[in-house]
Amino acid sequence: MKYFYKLIIAFVLAMVVLVSGFIYFAEKRYKTPNFQISPYAETLEMSADIYFVKDNYLLQKEGLSTKVRRTDYITSIFNKLKKSPRNVRAIPALKDAVELIDFSKNDKQLNLNINKDILETSLWKSGQEDTVVYAIVNTFCTLEEFERVKINVEGRPISDYMQRETSNVFSFNDSIIYRKVDKPYDLVEAFFKYIEIRRYDLAYLLTTQSVEYEMEHTDFVERVSKLLPKGEHVSSSYKMQYDTELIDNECLVCVLVEQEHKAFRGQKKYLIKVVKMREGEFKIIDNF
């Protein structure tokens, strides 16, 4: 009788081990950081960050969790870029007429072929093509499956229609993501970063002039581009030296720009005046 009980106990323990092992390997096989997938279901639970455009042409993400079809989750995510965000101060990067014609995947790269309506969006026509492209790219690069996104417009590289890009393969770009500016220091640092990547339109939005006037492109670019001179034999770097306290809603941020040439090294110092606006946000006083 004791032998019989021992057999039963051994059988029960073996079944527990077998079931536990099956559950463990099933979860490892059908779960990824972005998906929870049943091996038999046609739909899956997806989580992703969708990037929308704020009123200053910077990108802001909103977390999304929804059910999508297993076979066309790429299209589902793409279509979310056309929906209105929860943030009332943000807009979708794409309009309803923009369609994903087809896509493919290879070696951590997503290849998208989009119709020409992407070139007719108000953002694209106003010169914000980078914002449109990186809303798409950053959204898909939040998925662990992809590190790069290649974009064509009806078979033609999207870079053919862009002013600042020469390639149609993009990776995640954090330089145009909205970040709350808590200190004048942060504002000036963002200002110089935009000048460095030649996004003079975004730099302009950080100045007091942008509150009252549309950007006088040529004049502003001519003045601020001299802050970080570029050339075949010139390289520049910059660092913030200090940030003074706010006095009567104004302060000065000192910026040291180090220039290196094959024949010389030099340094320029700029005192950037920052003012706290009535709404509580900081702006740079445009007096360069």
Quick recap:
This protein is α+β, with helices and mostly antiparallel strands and 288 residues long.
**Alpha-beta content class:** alpha+beta
Using only C-alpha atoms, the radius of gyration works out to 26 Å
What proportion of the residues is helical, as a percent range?
25-40%
Number of structural domains: 2
Number of helices: 8
Number of strands: 13
Low-confidence stretches: 22-33
Q: Looking at the structure, what is the overall shape?
A: globular
Order of helices and strands: HEEEHEEEHHEEEHHHHEEEE
Query: Which sheet architecture does the biggest sheet show?
Result: 5 strands, mixed
Arithmetic mean pLDDT: 79
SSE blueprint and pairings:
Blueprint: H1 2-30, E1 35-36, E2 43-54, E3 59-69, H2 73-80, E4 90-91, E5 100-106, E6 109-114, H3 122-125, H4 129-141, E7 148-153, E8 156-157, E9 169-171, H5 184-196, H6 200-204, H7 209-212, H8 217-224, E10 234-243, E11 250-261, E12 265-276, E13 282-284
Parallel strand pairs: 6-7
Antiparallel strand pairs: 1-2, 2-3, 2-4, 5-6, 7-8, 7-9, 10-11, 11-12, 12-13
Structure description:
The protein is of the alpha+beta class and 288 residues long. It has two domains: 43-171, no CATH class; 184-284, Roll (Nuclear Transport Factor 2, Chain: A). It contains eight helices and 13 strands. Strands 5, 6, 7, 8 and 9 form a five-stranded mixed sheet that branches. Strand 11 and strand 12 (265-276) form a beta hairpin. The longest helix is centred in the N-terminal third of the chain and has 29 residues, at 2-30. The chain is globular.
